[in-house]
Write a structure and sequence with these properties.
With 414 residues, the protein is an alpha+beta fold. The chain contains 14 helices and 16 strands.
Amino acid sequence: MKLALCGMSALRVLRDLRQRHVDVMRLPRVDLPAPSLEGSGRWSRAAISQAIEQYPCLADFSERHPLCVAVPTAATRLRVKGVSCTVHGKGLPANAFVDVGGGLFISSPELLFIELAGIMLPEVHLVVGMELCGTYARDASDPRNGSVAYQIPAVTCMDRIRAFVDGCHHVNGLGPARETLEWLLDNAWSPMEAVVAAMAVLPGAMLGYDLWPIDLNVPVDARGGTASGTRIPDLVFRGTDVGLNYDGEGHLPLQDVVDAAIRLASLPQERATQEDLDDALRRAREGAVADKRRDRDLGAAGLTVFAMTKEDLYERGGLDRLMLQVMDAISRTGKRDLSRQRTMMESKLLGDLRQELIWSFLPGKVGQEAAQTFAELSAPNPDITRYMKIARFVDGKWVVSLVERSSSAALPGD
């Protein structure tokens, strides 16, 4: 049996493999095989279900959420309800698919980056691209609210994607993929980090803060004074001495302290409950002290690093306030003229649109609702690969309009 998956189905399989800590970079790369069954069997829903049974995240394929299958010719399309076929007959570099075993193949991460560009809003595509080039993976079935795997190998990088894109011809999604590649970054360590990085680098025309270029998780020599070794800020604005660190909800175990205190209150005579509370308090204190020492070390190395929290993303205008502080700090160094960016921040229209975009990436009900709202605001035309909403700086103010996308035209604000 041979069956190749592409698009969203390939993304689900890739996330499943990464969640199971499979090193995808070590899997064999092959050319696209034609779908085939053993003997003279014919493809049916039952046969396909059997072929993908090792990936429960694919089990619910339907006409509304089809299984995305890649085939080399129109004649090899599968005529099965709930299956959508993409013909990759010409224009792909060699070895554009990954053999994941059991007769199943998926688009390589580089090809997947192009395929997703044709079906995703560019802002979403950028964040997913950072996941492919990063050391984390979202849940295959529930990427918004499911578990996240951390400290895993990246499956590709900017240079590999760029080389693959340069070797492609007449592949759907190639134009939008080139646009996203302009802002793509390697080495994101978490979903929230990728979201903040995307917002930082996107131009004002796409509701970002237009603070490109930046670097993610680059070690900084912090051996001055009593410190030893290096420190790694989450994000540094290249060419400046300003950066960001994201302190997530689980960064300090405060919930452990609360839970231990509740247990102690209900069982005050149990010595173990007091010990649990003492241990939780100790770990929270150690985390806070480590943060202070990290900030001191980075300060001694010449960096001003702003701490960022989940609340900065969830509260209306929270990230705007933080980025204004970042802009002030960068401007004081005299290394960048950010007058245009600051003027952009004065627009309530852009601020409201930007907040919907930020919320659309976040877990929970807020994120789900904002994703629907932002999709409606950003894609009034169903052909999202052709049209996009942009902003222009006209007569001292920012205005929003709908324009046709072009892979070669520069965006306003670039």
